[in-house]
Amino acid sequence: MTKPAKSLDEQTLLINEIFYSVQGESTYAGLPCVFVRLRGCHLRCAYCDTEYAFHEGEKQSLQAIIDEVESVSATNPSPPGGGGPRSGSEGDVGVVMAAGDEDQSEPNSAPTALTPSLSRGERGLNQTQSSCDLVEITGGEPLLQRNVHPLMTALCDAGKTVLIETSGACDISVCDPRVIRIMDLKTPGSGEAHRNDWNNIAHLNERDEVKFVLTSRGDYEWMVKQLEEHRLHERVNAVLVSAVHKVEPGKEIAGCLGLSITELAGWLLQDRLPVRLQTQLHKLIWDPSARGV
Ligand SMILES: Nc1nc2[nH]cc(C(=O)O)c2c(=O)[nH]1
Ligand code: SF4
Ligand SMILES: [Mg+2]
C-alpha cells in the first residue's frame, strides 16, 4: 500500500533567510523579487559570498515558507532597510521618506513633494496582486534538500514565476518543468569545476540561463571552450558572465585575485561572444556584505 502524500504542513526545509529585494542577477535583474535562501552547500567555491548559508538556518514547514513568501512583499513595500545604502554612497535612491510617512495607506493624508500621491494599488500595473509574483529559490545549494521540489511546485501552482539558482553540481532534470533554472558552470578558478554535472546540459531549455563566474583569463578561455563545445547560447535564454570582484595582491580569498570587469568587457567585445555581461545589482545598491538584500 502506498503512503498518503504528506501535506505542506508536514514537509519541511532548512531555511537560511526569506526576503524581498530587487533581483540583482540574471535576465530578471531589476525586478522586485522574493528570495528563499536554503541552508547548506556541498561546494566551497573560492569566491563564495554566502558562506553564512552553509550552517545557519532553521527548519520551516513548506506552508510556513509559502505564507512568508506571500507576506514579505505585501507587508514590506518599502526597500529593504537591513543593509542600509552602499557605504560611500549618498543613499540617493530617488524617493525620500519623511518621518511619519511610512503608512501610505492613510486615505486622507495630503500628498506632498515627499509623499507619493498614488496608492500602491493605483501604481501597480497588476492591481489585483498584493504580493510579488517573482520568487527565486537560492542558497547555498537549494537542490540538496529534496523538499525543495514540492515547494517549487506549490509556488508555481500559486501563479508565481519561480527561478532557481543552482551550482550545476546537482541534477536539474527533476525540477518542475515550470521552474526556470539559472545554472552555474563552475570554472577552474572556483576550485569546484570537477563537481559540474555535465548531464545537466542536455536538460537545459530555452527558458533557462547558464552562468559563468570568472576569476581570470584562464577561466575566460575555459568558458569559450564550453560555449563552443556545448553550443550553450543556442540551448538557453541567456548565457550570463560575471567577474569575481578584483582585490589587491595580498588580499586574495583562497588564492583568488579576481578579475577586472573592464578587462572582461574588452575581451567580450573583441571576441563578440553571444553572452550577457552581468554585475550584481544589489551590491551596487546596498552594502556588498549586507544580508537580506
Ligand atoms: N538582490 C539579490 N539578488 C540576487 N540574485 C541572486 C542572489 C543569490 O544570492 O543567489 C541574490 C541576492 O542575494 N540578492
Ligand atoms: S555553490 Fe554557491 S553557495 Fe556553494 S560554495 Fe559555491 S558560491 Fe557558495
Ligand atoms: Mg547572493
Give an overview of the whole structure.
The chain contains seven helices and nine strands, in the order E-E-E-H-H-E-H-E-E-E-H-H-E-H-E-H. It has a nine-stranded mixed β-sheet, with helices on one face. Helix 3 links the parallel strand 4 and strand 5. The chain has 293 residues and is α/β, with parallel strands linked by helices. The chain has helices spanning 62-75, 120-123, 148-157, 217-230, 232-235, 261-271, 281-285, and strands spanning 12-22, 32-38, 58-61, 134-138, 161-166, 180-184, 209-214, 238-243, 276-277. It has a single domain, classed as TIM Barrel (Alpha-Beta Barrel), CATH 3.20.20. Bound molecules: the ligand Nc1nc2[nH]cc(C(=O)O)c2c(=O)[nH]1, iron/sulfur cluster and magnesium ion.
What is the highest CATH level, the class?
A: Alpha Beta
Q: Which superfamily, in CATH terms, is the homologous superfamily?
A: Aldolase class I
- Please outline the major beta sheet: 9 strands, mixed
Proportion of residues in extended strands? 15-25%
Low-confidence stretches: 89-116
CATH topology: TIM Barrel
